[in-house]
Amino acid sequence: MTVTIYHNPDCGTSRNTLAMIRASGETPDVIEYLKNPPSRERLVGLLKAMDMPARALLREKGTPYTELGLADAKWSEDELIDQMLVHPILINRPIVETPKGTRLCRPSEAVLPLLDTPVRDFVKEDGEKIACTPPA
User: Fold this and answer.
1) Distance between CA atoms of 88 and 85, rounded to whole angstroms?
2) Element at 10 (helix H, strand E)
3) pTM to 2 decimals?
4) What is the CATH number of the domain that holds 20?
């Protein structure tokens, strides 16, 4: 199975998600999207695959969201995508793609239904234990 994660190594949720993927036995394609941002076409494709409007993918914390006034409803879908392309830090993470689907994995255990092999007894960086159940 091909697994791709749009990853930020400075983000605990992203690190936990990547660790869960690896714990399932997968060797994912890791795209550090701050260093290698997606193209417009790719970002639009990810949004479509997640059935998510651009506004729902915007990250506020630690980004220029407030300074840019992105909370204002005046921004169109295309304009929000433009802002994410100019400022990739606005793209919430991690986004994971597998043959089972594409999703924003917040919280990190949202990745579990996308994996073929169950992850058991996973402990997040903060010590939280995740009771993982096998996929249906």
Assistant:
1) 5
2) none
3) 0.91
4) 3.40.30.10
